[in-house]
Each structure stands twice: as structure tokens, then as C-alpha cells.
Amino acid sequence: MAGRALVAALCFLTVIMAPELPRAADPETERQWVSASPDYQWSFPRDHWVHRAFRNEWWYFTGRLVSRADPQRRFGYQFVIFRVGLYPGVSGLASDWDAANLLMGHAAITDKAAGEHRFSEVLYREAPFLAQFGAHPDPLIAWSLAPLGTDGTWKLRSNGEGFELEMVDRAKGIALGLRTAFSAPRVFQGPGGFSRKSDEPGAASMYYSFTRLDTRGAVTIDGHRWEVEGVSWMDREFSSNQLTEEQTGWDWFGLRLDDGRDLMLYELRTKAGAVDYGKGTLVSPDGGIRYLTRADWKLSATASWESPESGVVYPAAWSVEVPSEKLRLTIEPDLADQENRSRAGVGMTYWEGAVTVYGEDGQRAGEGYAELTGYGENNRPPI
Fold first, then answer.
1. Tens digits of per-residue pLDDT, 253-299?
2. Would the pTM of this model clear 0.85, i.e. be above it?
3. In this structure, are residues 354 and 334 in contact, taking their beta carbons and an 8 Å threshold?
4. CA distances from 249 to 109, 111, 184, 375, 382 (A)
5. What is the CATH T-level fold of the domain 55-372, as seen in this structure?
6. Per-domain boundaries in the chain
7. 6 - beta bridge partners?
8. Rg from Cα positions in the chain
9. How far, in Å, CA of 55 to CA of 103, rounded?
10. Is 40 exposed, middle or buried (0-12, 13-18, 19+ CB in 10 A)?
């Protein structure tokens, strides 16, 4: 335990002292962050790994899982690894502890039967014994220590057929160990994977998804382990400047429809609460892709929910129409409280949760996840 305490102390110091490292005096060692570009040359599987020239990136998994022993026991999960670049270029320190990145991890399990949503997080410098982003072709994409007080690690790996992920937080009483496999083609979210977030130059990301990943593994809550199977959605983005100064957050939906189609929509909001930009992608059962502009759909919130913990008010149900596709859907959260309340870093609070989709006849038409950011005071995502 003494060694664990030392690692914890070093982690704390490296996180709080990170931005004050001296820089090299030679201006040729200074670089600028690379911006997303429609000319980006993709290379797979290499692009599943880290992109250090960009300021931010993430590997985002959400999914719906069912107990193999008890099909009535259903779970939603979120697992995400963020890389946050502290500075481009070289600091000038000849040390393995001279890390230019933070690794932040968020994970959550929604247990619908128990009416519970549990959230966990990690935040470490990319430094020896704390966290690391791997390099292709090493199967390890990223890893970090578990939250302080929990022995273990968080890991994201590639196995050639999909991705493997694991996390544990004994204080929160949750753990995940999942193996995913590609069951549908990769989807570029925007032509060539270039995803605009505004008409302003530079406000964009490189963005692709795997909308259907066969998933098997285990969910553990308070020591009870469920063997599970289901389907996951993976979002992969990297960029250096997404939001404009006037944008404060977004509503994002990743929906798998029971007729085999997949629908992704996002809308970005201004500080005044108005939607100022939106894009979408509709994937047909045969893999065909149609890119949607904001004029192609109508999205309306039909209910709201106020968090008793944070006091933030979120939309809590939606109607969505895509007239050209004859889609008229209702989206409802599986659980009202799926709010993630981060205590690390900037302490952002946001809603990320499992949702069910219903058709015009009121019958189930699909399932997926929704993400709501930028609601409440001082909750603008730092990207």
C-alpha cells in the first residue's frame, strides 16, 4: 500500500503542476496544433490509435447489454477515454515525466431494473506508472490507473476484430470488462470523415463511428457479476478546435433502429440557447450513407428534468422527424437521472444516457444513447 500511496501523491502533483513546465527557447521546436481538414489522409487501422498533432481526441463507447442468465436484466454503459493536449511541440525537459497530455476517462453503468446510474472517472498525466497512449501496432491503445483508492487499471485495446475495454472503481462499486467485434462497416460522419461544427473556418473534427459492435463480457455492480451480451456504438473524434466562442454545448443522439437503419444527429447551441448548427448521418441496412443537413430533420424537446443533485435542467424526451425518410419517432430516456457529475479537472456536469425509440404507433422502434452538454452554469465542454 505504501507504493500505491506514492503513486497517488505523484499523480496529484503532476496533474496540478502540469501547465507550468518551461518551454524550449528555440522557436523551431514550437509547433501549432493541427486542424481538422477535408484533405486528411486516413490510414486504418492506424487511425484507431493516438494523434498527438491534434489538441483533443476521444474514443467513445456506449452500448446496451442484456444479462445472458436473465434477459429481463438490462444495462446501458458508457466508456470513454479522452486525450487532452496541454501544449504542442517540445517543452525542453529531458525527462520521461515531461508529459504533454492528460488522459481522462469517464465510465457509467445504468441499471434500469434497479433504477440506478453510477458514474466513475479518472484523470492522470501521461507519465510512467500513471497513464499512457499506445502506438500502432501495439494492441494497447490507452491505459491508466484506476481511480485513487482502487487497485487496477482502465484499458482500451484493439484485437484486430474490434476493441476490448475494462474499468473498475471499487468506491463506486462498478466494473466493466467487454470485448467488441465489428458487425457493420465503419461510418464516416461527414464526407471523408470531416465533420463541421460551424460555418466558421476551423470549427470541425475528424469523426468516424462503428454504429454496431457485437459485444460480450461482464458487468459488475456491488460485487455481483452479470455475464452480458449486446450491441455497442463507438464514436472516434480528433480535432484542435471544435466549438466557436458563441457555442456552449450540444445535443447528440446515436440511435440503432429496429429496421436496421442507424441515425446520428447533433445540434449545437449558442449561449442564448438557440440551435445554430446541426448535422446528421443516416445509415441504411446495406451500409449506404446519407448525410443530413439541419434542414432535413425536426427535433423538439417534449419534456424536461431537473437534477436534484446539480439543479441543472435538461430536455427529457424528444420527437424527431426526418420527412424525406418517412421517420416520425419519439425518444425517451430509460432512466431520468443519467447525469454524470465530474469532480476532476473542470468539474463538468452533463447528461449521458440510454434511450429507447418509439414509432408513430407507440411501439418500440429502436434504442441508443443521447448526450446533452452545456446545460447549467459553467458547463461548456472545454474543447
1. 999 999 999 999 999 999 889 999 999 999 999 999 999 999 999 99
2. yes
3. yes
4. 23, 27, 29, 7, 10
5. AttH-like fold (2.40.370)
6. 55-372
7. none
8. 20
9. 12
10. middle
